[in-house]
């Protein structure tokens, strides 16, 4: 009589194959070039520059690039509503002293002081050193100054790409100096009644890019700086 043991053994072995109750879950991909603080600068580049890759307000202040939080602004639904007091200022783009296009919304999360200046404006030159000093003292707290140049030294309503660099060099500014050569921002605040024609004209934006206050002249520049300090 033939035995059926071999087939039984085969079936037994097959039935005793181990079952993996904990299947392998693919590990999340490793980000090779992380940007921990989301400021647009890679951690490795911040390490090389000596800045803190965990702090969004710390970056290479002596470089030719600015932080960029545009994606965060979009994710939070930030959208310009107007140029009046308490409104979210519309985004605008200008060329900086390095010739690069820079948008206002890159600086979402900062308290921003925008100063509209011109080359021929003596008071504009007078307040520039104080702006640089304030920026150096409080930039790690989230303060940012921006000079928006609307005219050159000739006073004929014209600016060229080189003038932003000239203005920054003249006053040793290492915060953004932008050309508003289409007068987009200046016309906007004029349309709302905030701007009446005198410069330096400064507006203070809170961390949500809302227009908090407007100031004129050398005394106004001090008031704008004090108000920005209160918002930090």
Describe this structure in words.
There is one protein chain. A hairpin with a 5-residue loop joins strand 1 and strand 2 (101-103). The protein folds into 2 domains: 7-67, no CATH class; 74-231, Glutaredoxin (3-Layer(aba) Sandwich), CATH 3.40.30. The protein has helices at 5-15, 43-49, 70-75, 122-138, 161-171, 184-192, 217-231, and strands spanning 93-95, 101-103, 111-118, 143-151, 177-179, 201-205, 211-216. The chain has 7 helices and 7 strands; from the N terminus they run H-H-H-E-E-E-H-E-H-E-H-E-E-H. The protein is α/β, with parallel strands linked by helices and 232 residues long.
Decide which structural class fits the backbone. alpha/beta
CATH architecture field of the largest domain: 3-Layer(aba) Sandwich
What is the mean pLDDT?
Answer: 88
How much β-strand is present in the residues? 15-25%
Number of helices: 7
Provide the spatial order of strands within the biggest beta sheet: 5-4-3-6-7
Distance between the termini: 95 Å
Order of helices and strands: HHHEEEHEHEHEEH
Largest sheet: 5 strands, mixed
Helix percent reads 25-40%
Please tell me the total number of domains. 2
In short:
This protein is of the alpha/beta class and 232 residues long. The protein has helices at residues 5-15, 43-49, 70-75, 122-138, 161-171, 184-192, 217-231; strands at residues 93-95, 101-103, 111-118, 143-151, 177-179, 201-205, 211-216. It folds into 2 domains: 7-67, no CATH class; 74-231, 3-Layer(aba) Sandwich (Glutaredoxin).
